[in-house]
Design a protein that fits this description.
Blueprint (H helix, E strand, L loop, with lengths): L1 H32 L23 H23 L12 H5 L28 E7 L4 H14 L5 E9 L12 H5 L6 E6 L5 H11 L4 E5 L3 E2 L6 H9 L3 E11 L5 E3 L4 E5 L5 E5 L11 E2 L7 E5 H6 L13 H11 L3 E14 L8 H6 L1 H13 L2 H11 L2 H5 L2 H13 L6 H8 L11 E7 L3 E6 L7 E6 L10 E4 L4 E3 L3 E4 L6 E4 L10 E3 L4 E3 L5 E6 L5 E5 L4 E3 L3 E4 L3 E5 L7
Parallel strand pairs: 1-2, 1-4, 2-3, 6-12
Antiparallel strand pairs: 4-11, 5-12, 6-7, 6-11, 8-9, 10-12, 13-16, 13-26, 14-15, 16-17, 17-18, 18-19, 20-21, 22-23, 22-25, 24-25
């Protein structure tokens, strides 16, 4: 009876064994099919992987076991064809398949950098890396690459700040503290019980740092040996200098998409919007450090002393956004200088989306809060009022007026003589900031009516006319610049190249974004002077229409609108 029963189960046992074998073969086959770009190390664990200088025997064995577990999990995720897209839009299965210690990170430096020797710096560096729900393999790869690339004589301490990660959902991050606690180097592991935001975390990290210099890094980067020497060369020459490496990007949802960045000056307008200015390219000096008004926030090094003098990042800012511009502004305003260093590179793992564009962080609108706070702290009252007219931030900023006064006090205490106008004239003269030097006319009106925008989701903004009260966010001042751009919100230009006119990001290439003003006829026209800004009769809507007729049946009767400017700085630009 027992033999008959065993024979009855034999087909099921054989089927189960076949499924297990098949699963194993599929895993191995899938691994063989994996495309290996020239910047990617084979995703296999290597038991002969050499021990790092900061690892004990126990730490070394722990890392190899952890790597095996991560890679095995990556294969299962690949089989199920799931792309993890919750930790800021990364491809989890792909990133988990990479070794924690990589040897073939591509060297993106200009060839002129090879062979350069730098001064023998003795500066002790505190490395600050903060993270929130970061992918475990990505975080560990960042830490390991940084520590192995900094000379022992320069490395002082590692400060890891877990900014309130959800360990119930991302329990793999529980592996971090036990691992780093086994290392022989000094590690400060700090965990906030709730998410305090990137700016708070970095400010805290800078405050507790005890090294001569502080290296701030994102938790999803990789570097190669030699990246820190050119940075130290800058800050060692003057403690009021701040130096940033050049970023190269890897878009991990497209495993082969790696791109390098050109030398660009990162400028910004008075609303803190980025403006990329191509640096004058000279083949013989493309490797040399160059001054820049601002830097990206993902990697930079600064002396602890000057960071302390200017109170680190501005008080009152929340979450993430604009803290890098605020810090760079204080450096320039208080007699310092900001540099990009092409011979120092950081490979940055690019997420599918900005961390500010989803979830609670999108609802919080930290970018508006931070920008309003910075403008209130460091710009004139007129600039803040203009910003508030567009974005309605005065109530929010007023609730943090004590922090604003503390930021202003930093400038007074350090006797900072420069301001944004100085920065625009001396660092970014190509930026149109609408002052007497660059503006043709401002404050466009028509019989005390002002132009506003109606923005519907996923649709172009519609222009309309409305009576101008003393202050109203829905009414927006327009400015006509010397480049014949009709700008709104300082960064959006009127574009005539669509069936309906619309405001798009200013591209500086002319064409459909060229706008003229005929002072005699008080008309706004396109580049060919064939289309005028018109108003549909019996409505408040604005659009384009032929200039050669006063009224025309064109999607309904309309009339050519007459405009005037409250202030005109230079009549020479008017037609």
């Amino acid at each position: 009876m027992w033999l008959i029963r065993r024979r009855a189960f034999l087909p099921q046992l054989l089927l189960l064994a076949a499924i297990i074998v098949l699963l194993f073969l599929v895993i191995e086959h899938h691994q063989l099919l994996y495309v290996k770009p020239d910047c990617i190390q084979a995703h296999t664990t290597d038991r002969n992987d050499p021990k790092l200088y900061f690892e004990t025997d126990k730490a070394y064995k722990t890392r190899l076991k952890l790597q095996e577990k991560i890679i095995f999990g990556a294969r299962l995720k690949e089989l199920s064809q799931q792309v993890f897209n919750e930790r800021e839009g990364y491809n989890e299965s792909f990133l988990d398949s990479l070794p924690l210690q990589r040897y073939d990170i591509r060297d993106f430096r200009p060839e002129q950098c090879v062979g350069i020797t730098y001064k023998n710096s003795e500066t002790k560096v505190s490395v600050v890396i903060n993270f929130h729900n970061e992918l475990l393999s990505l975080l560990l790869r960042s830490i390991i690459s940084v520590l192995k690339s900094i000379p022992k004589k320069n490395f002082h301490e590692l400060i890891l700040i877990d900014d309130g990660s959800n360990l119930d959902q991302h329990f793999d991050l529980l592996e971090v503290e036990p691992l780093v606690s086994l290392w022989t180097v000094k590690v400060k592991y700090i965990r906030f019980e709730e998410n305090r935001g990137l700016i708070y975390s970095r400010r805290f990290g800078c405050q507790v740092a005890s090294g001569d210099a502080v290296l701030i890094l994102d938790s999803h980067v990789e570097v190669i040996p030699g990246f820190i020497e050119p940075l130290l060369d800058i800050i060692d020459s003057n403690y009021k200098f701040i130096a940033a490496p050049t970023f190269d990007f890897w878009h991990t949802l497209n495993k082969n998409k790696v791109w390098t960045t050109e030398a660009r000056i990162l400028a910004f307008d008075r609303y803190l919007n980025w403006i990329n200015i191509d640096k004058e390219k000279k083949e013989y000096d493309i490797h040399k450090p160059f001054k820049t008004p601002a830097i990206l926030g993902g990697a930079f090094i600064a002396s602890k002393k000057f960071l302390q003098e200017i109170d680190y990042f501005g008080r009152g800012m929340q979450g993430w956004g604009y803290e890098n511009i605020e810090l760079a502004m204080k450096y320039w305003m208080c007699g310092g200088e900001v540099y990009y260093v092409p011979c120092s590179r950081v490979l940055h793992y690019a997420a599918e989306r900005s961390p500010m564009n989803h979830g609670d962080r999108k609802k919080a609108k930290h970018y508006l809060h931070n920008a309003g706070l910075i403008i209130k702290s460091y710009f004139s009252e007129d600039v803040f009022n203009d910003y508030d007219l567009h974005y309605n931030v005065s109530k929010d900023v007023q609730e943090h007026i004590n922090e604003v006064e503390a930021n202003k006090d930093v400038l007074q205490r350090n006797k900072c003589q420069r301001d944004y106008s100085w920065m625009r004239r001396n660092l970014m003269p190509k930026v149109d900031s609408f002052d007497n030097d660059t503006t043709m006319a401002i404050n466009l009106q028509s019989n005390k009516n002002c132009i506003g925008l109606v923005q519907n989701e996923n649709e172009p903004a519609i222009l309309f006319f409305k009576k101008c009260p003393s202050a109203a966010p829905e009414c927006t001042k327009l400015r006509l610049t010397i480049w014949h751009e009709l700008r709104i919100h300082d960064r959006m230009c009127l574009d005539w190249g669509y069936p309906r006119i619309r405001f798009l990001t200013c591209h500086g290439q002319g064409g459909n974004q060229i706008t003229y003003y005929n002072a005699k006829r008080q008309e706004i026209t396109n580049v060919h002077k064939t289309q005028c800004l018109v108003q549909y009769l019996n409505t408040t809507l604005l659009d384009k229409g032929p200039c050669n007729l006063e009224e025309e049946s064109f999607l309904g009767a309309f009339k050519i609108r007459k405009f005037d400017f409250e202030t005109v700085y230079s009549d020479s630009f008017l037609l």
